[in-house]
Amino acid sequence: MIEEIRKHVKALIEEQKIAAFLGLKDQAGNIVPHLYESVDALGEGFSIGEGNSSSPFRYPLASLLMTLVQTYADKTFGVLVRGCDERAINELLRWNQIPAAAERIVTVGLACPAELAKDHECRKPFPDTFVAGEKAEPVAYESVREVMVMDLSGRLAYWLGEFDRCIKCYGCRDVCPVCFCNVCTLEEDVLIKTGDLPPENPMFHLTRAVHMAGRCIDCNLCTEACPAQIPLRTLYKKVAEIVRDEFGYISGEQDSGKSPLNILGPQPGHTSANE
Amino acid sequence: MDLKFVRTTCPYCGCGCEMLLQVLDGKLVGTLPSKTNPMNQGKLCIKGWNAHEFVQSPKRLTAPLLRKNGSLQEVSWDEALDFTAGRLKEIKETHGGDSLAFLTSAKCTNEENYLFQKFCRVGFGTNNIDHCARL
């Protein structure tokens, strides 16, 4: 798989379709993000992060890409994308993070193996177009089912218990590829008291979950970043199901139009929100 | 174009989590946890997540400051060290070593902290020593 990707990137750089490629590099066994600016750099250490589970190589490449596209406004960049990275890029463009940036992003797709998809309960473990890998089956949200079999008071006790371990590191928010707000609600003292540790239970986490509605692209980086091992993905997947059922919106898809929580004003075709 | 991800250890506490410092055009713009280190396994605490902020902060001191006539003024290292050594000796002679307390930092190396506590315990004969990570 790595050779197909390497060949594809080499061609993109040689044909000057991209100024640089944002991918991964193997530094003595540690996989880190890396910006490849020339064909020579694609030799030693070029990595696409291969592995089945416990993925020690997934980073929020979409948000790193946005930094590049914002900083170097005249350049086009290639980027290694898995299904989740592509969903993140689609959402970030949809939320106007950089207008007209779609032309300056060239994705190099990689489909994830079945074990990795199962580990993260990924609903679409492949980008729309990919250069290497094989389509794995989308995975059902088993973790959500397991919580939903409990009754309401059982679920409340479960979540209060999970949130109690939170150390307020903001890792879930910092690593999230679609969290881009300059002024974050979770840091506003009038809404979430500063200095509270553990943070207000359950308001801190429910606030974040509501903000993930119509935005979360189900990459599971948040759960991986949580030092207290709170099953954040289960909560956000449930929120995504509600958004899908109530608004018919699935985040990250190419042509789904604006997220329902990004629309201000009446529905298209109506003149007032009251109709 | 200059975007680098530098693998390094968090300076804050003794855990020693590995992190990636994101350097854009020579400026530190972000921090990511390193996923492969068995110590932190892709996780960081709030101090680690914001470690990039203090390094190039304009608020960092660049020269020793000495209070003269009620306000802090920049002085040379020689003047600052002479003043500190003189006053510490005076206070020890007048009020005893236990009237002093010494505060060091988890950001220093083990060797620097060893030296500092020897200075405190042997030099001034007091056990009043602590460090920032315990606060």
Q: What would you note in describing this structure?
A:
- The complex is a heterodimer of chains A (275) and B (135).
- With 275 residues, chain A is α/β, with parallel strands linked by helices.
- Chain A has two domains: 2-119, no CATH class; 142-252, no CATH class.
- Helix content of chain A is 35%, strand content 10%.
- Chain A has helices at residues 2-14, 61-71, 83-94, 114-119, 142-148, 152-163, 171-175, 203-211, 221-225, 232-247, and strands at residues 20-27, 30-36, 46-47, 77-81, 105-109.
- In chain A, strands 1, 2, 3, 4 and 5 form a five-stranded mixed β-sheet that branches.
- In chain A, helix 2 (61-71) crosses helix 3 (83-94).
- Chain B contains four helices and seven strands, in the order E-E-E-H-H-E-E-H-E-H-E.
- Helices cover 32% and strands 26% of the residues of chain B.
- In chain B, strand 6 (102-104), helix 4 and strand 7 form a beta-alpha-beta unit.
- Chain B has three domains: 3-55, Single Sheet (N-terminal domain of TfIIb); 61-95, no CATH class; 96-135, no CATH class.
- With 135 residues, chain B is an alpha+beta fold.
- The model of chain B has no long low-confidence stretch (mean pLDDT 91).
- At the A-B interface, strand 2, helix 2 and helix 7 of A face strand 1, strand 2, strand 3 and helix 1 of B.
Task: Describe the structure using short key phrases.
heterodimer, A: 275 residues, 2 domains, five-stranded mixed β-sheet, 10 helices, B: 135 residues, alpha+beta, N-terminal domain of TfIIb, 3 domains, two-stranded antiparallel sheet
Summarize it.
The complex is a heterodimer of chains A (275) and B (135). Chain A has 275 residues and is an alpha/beta fold.
CATH topology category name of the largest domain in chain B = N-terminal domain of TfIIb
Largest sheet of chain A: 5 strands, mixed
Determine the oligomeric state from the structure.
heterodimer
The N- to C-terminal Cα distance of chain A equals: 53 Å
> Roughly how much helix do the residues of chain B carry, as a percent range?
25-40%
Q: What is the name of the CATH class of the largest domain in chain B?
A: Mainly Beta
The coarse silhouette of chain A is globular
Please indicate the count of domains of chain B: 3
Strand content of chain B: 25-35%
Distance between the amino and carboxyl termini of chain B: 41 Å
Instruction: Estimate what percentage of residues of chain A fall within beta strands.
Output: 5-15%
Global Rg of chain B: 19 Å
Major sheet of chain B: 3 strands, antiparallel
Q: What is the name of the CATH architecture of the largest domain in chain B?
A: Single Sheet
Q: What's the rounded overall pLDDT mean of chain A?
A: 88
Largest interface: A-B, 34 and 25 residues
Q: What's the β-strand tally of chain A?
A: 5
Secondary structure tally, helices of chain B: 4
Number-wise, the strands of chain B total: 7
Q: Overall mean pLDDT score of chain B?
A: 91
- Strands of the largest sheet of chain B, in order across it? 1-2-3
